[in-house]
């Protein structure tokens, strides 16, 4: 039995998905334009206090370990490069849009992004993306949870309680109580923001690979599912106490063998100390 809402009802009125923020829209147009000078991107970042502060904190962080003190936003953008700046904008936008988003979702999403990076740096080639692009997939994969928490807080809490009482994964509890899970809502949000098709599909299918029929993108969705499980199994869960279960077939669909797992986990554990630093940077106040 499904909950009282279905996806059409949610998207038609019960949940009004937020529009893509102006800063994200402008910067994404710029970074996707091969003819746009990096200097112009730097000026656009400098014009947004929240993004500018995060760029400076990131470029001076141990996570990137550049070994020099950077005080100019434009210099920071030049050192970080287009893809890192794009990731920074995604991160800031998702969590600034949902200012009351749960801390657990925040930390889990960062950890999933780091796990995606570990997959790529360990030699996994998910649909040809590099480790910086892979980080974005982890960051936004659970944005649907933030939609539910903000727009349907009571139902979201009921789903959390059902999840804990029955020992089922949170997405199954959401389907039971609300009638739609956070993966579907996250994909709807990503589509509303006109994010890349591959990203939309990977978000929507990371708990149910049958939702994606395109082989290459299915591999991406499976990779997100693996990264999601890696983060959760290390204690960084988005719903405290929830069951952490792998998406059926994800490891095989992602092309990972038992021999690959050791290297991937070793790389993930090496990157884990940077999670808390990234959480602090992404959640830093503007101005």
Task: Please render the helix and strand layout as text.
Elements (H helix, E strand, L loop, with lengths): L6 H8 L7 H10 L6 H9 L2 H11 L13 H8 L1 H16 L5 H19 L9 H10 L2 H9 L1 H14 L3 H8 L4 H11 L4 H9 L9 H19 L16 H4 L4 H14 L1 H10 L5
Quick overview of this protein structure:
The protein has 287 residues and is an all-alpha fold. It is built from 17 helices and no strands.
Structure overview:
It is a single chain. This protein has a single domain (7-18, 88-282), classed as Hypothetical protein af1432. 66% of the residues lie in helices and 0% in strands. The chain is built from 17 helices and no strands. It has helices spanning 7-14, 22-31, 38-46, 49-59, 73-80, 82-97, 103-121, 131-140, 143-151, 153-166, 170-177, 182-192, 197-205, 215-233, 250-253, 258-271, 273-282. Helix 7 (103-121) packs across helix 17. The longest helix has 19 residues, at 103-121. It starts with 6 loop residues before the first helix and ends in a 5-residue tail after the last helix.
Instruction: Please tell me the total number of domains.
Output: 1
Helix/sheet category: mainly alpha
Reported by name, the CATH topology is Hypothetical protein af1432
Shape label:
globular
Number of helical segments? 17
Keywords for this entry:
globular, mainly alpha, Hypothetical protein af1432, 17 helices, single chain, 287 residues
